[in-house]
Design a protein that fits this description.
Layout: E1 5-8, E2 13-16, E3 19-20, H1 21-27, H2 30-39, H3 45-57, H4 63-71, H5 78-92, H6 102-127, H7 141-150, H8 159-171, H9 179-188, H10 194-206, H11 213-224, H12 230-238, H13 257-273, H14 279-289, H15 293-297, H16 304-314, H17 322-343
Antiparallel strand pairs: 1-2, 2-3
Helix pairs in contact: 1-8, 2-17, 3-6, 4-6, 5-6, 5-10, 6-7, 6-17, 7-8, 8-13, 8-17, 9-10, 9-17, 10-17, 11-16, 13-16
The structure holds carboxymethyl coenzyme *A.
Residues 178, 209-211, 213, 237, 240, 243-250, 298, 300, 303-305 line the site of carboxymethyl coenzyme *A (CMC).
Length: 370
């Protein structure tokens, strides 16, 4: 049972707390949507301004965390680093395991909201051999994140790109009981601190069948290389030698409403950055897939990851940061699912029962007789 997010996969509907995703993406901001997800209602002006200032109050990570970041190989994948760093945060906030203390939980929520972007930006700077940029409390959430990544690069800080980043975070904020949200709930049900549970959820998101698909899509488009190579690639998909990444969804059997919105948002980004040359390949793949039997019969439509990678790349974000951006966007959703779990007094520790398919009882055999 959950009252956070509603999806109708056949009709392509996605709502957070009853509000259509399109309206939120058009009119709201990442922090307002986060508050809505976590607390259940759109905040008043005063509530929103308190929430923003509470999140900003925790806008720095312990210096030791920055030292851990500097210890990662520069070539390591950003998601491996992020998963470790989120878990490491719990060691600096030991009271966060008092999960029956609502004030402590609120502090943990604010810390995760403000510090996951700092971990992400600082790891990115480390991987590029650049020094860290301190968070700037005068900036909005997405602007602050982009500033920590790209300070001084005015093109990458263009207001339309900042606004596109905020929209992307909103579109990724929750998606009911998906793989990573289920992990958040499974781990949360044994009652550890939320930093550890968010780290586990991040690991689940990392995989290419879940959040890692945005990176895999870009890899795929790059490998296809040009529109002429598409028919040969599609033959391989239909023979099941490869998957068409960014297509298909366990719940949506129609066009993913997030992908529809992202396709439109992409145009706004490309107006600033110039068109991404891989866009032509993506559009042609989509047009073939929407008309060919293999895809139509299986209800395979573009999902959220099909266009997001193209947008990120055009914004100058390297591929292995794509799923990190998904993580920043999804963190409030995980926290909303976690808060709901804690409030449900009927919730017990997650413990799937198995269908045992192994041997019946048998006697140990000595090594000499094997
Ligand atoms: N390319 C080619 N064939 C596919 C694809 C695809 N992307 N997705 C599903 N199929 C086929 C699959 O082989 C199966 O065929 P058949 O009925 O002949 O055995 C049929 O469609 C049904 O697929 P399924 O594996 O039962 O579907 P699922 O609900 O288990 O998997 C999925 C959903 C998202 C894991 C899968 O569609 C997939 O791997 N897509 C590519 C990865 C991707 O884009 N993931 C992002 C998902 S959206 C964001 C998120 O959740 O993070």
């Amino acid at each position: 049972k959950s009252s956070v997010t509603y999806i109708d996969g056949d009709a392509g509907i996605l709502r957070y707390r009853g509000y259509p995703i399109e309206q939120l993406a058009e009119s709201s901001s990442q922090l307002e949507v986060s508050k809505l997800l976590i607390d259940g209602e759109l905040p008043s002006k005063e509530e929103l301004s308190k929430w923003i200032s509470d999140v900003k109050e925790h806008n720095s990570v312990p210096e030791e965390i920055n030292n851990i970041i500097k210890a990662f190989p520069v070539s390591s994948h950003a998601m491996g680093a992020l998963t470790s760093l989120e878990a490491a945060l719990s060691t600096f906030y030991p009271n966060s395991k008092n999960i029956t203390d609502e004030d402590e939980n609120y502090k943990s929520i604010c810390r995760l909201m403000s510090q996951v972007p700092i971990l992400a930006a600082n790891f990115y700077r480390h991987s590029q051999g650049l020094s860290f940029i301190a968070p700037d409390d005068s900036l909005d959430y997405s602007e602050n994140f982009l500033n920590m990544m790209f300070e001084g690069d005015n093109k990458k800080m263009h207001p339309d790109l900042v606004s596109a980043m905020d929209t992307l975070l909103i579109l990724h904020a929750d998606h009911e009981q998906n793989c990573s949200a289920s992990v958040m709930r499974n781990v949360g049900s044994s009652e550890p601190d939320p930093f550890s549970a968010v780290s586990a959820a991040t690991a689940a998101l990392y995989g290419p069948l879940h959040g890692g698909a945005n990176e895999a899509v870009l890899q795929m488009l790059t490998e296809i290389g040009s529109v002429e190579n598409i028919p040969a690639f599609m033959d391989k998909v239909k023979k099941k030698e490869v998957k068409l990444m960014g297509f298909g969804h366990r719940v949506y059997k129609a066009y993913d409403p997030r992908a529809k919105y992202l396709k439109e948002a992409a145009d706004k980004v490309f107006n600033v950055t110039g068109t991404n040359p891989l866009l032509d390949i993506a559009l042609e793949l989509e047009s073939i897939a929407l008309n060919e039997d293999y895809f139509v019969a299986r209800n395979l439509y573009p999902n959220v990851d099909f266009y997001s990678g193209l947008i990120y790349e055009s914004m100058g974000i390297p591929k292995d940061m794509f799923t990190v951006l998904f993580t920043i966007g999804r963190t409030p959703g995980w926290l909303a699912q976690w808060k709901e779990l804690l409030a449900d007094k009927d919730q017990k520790i997650a413990r799937p029962r198995q269908v045992y398919t192994g041997y019946d009882s048998r006697d140990y055999v000595n090594m000499e007789s094997r």
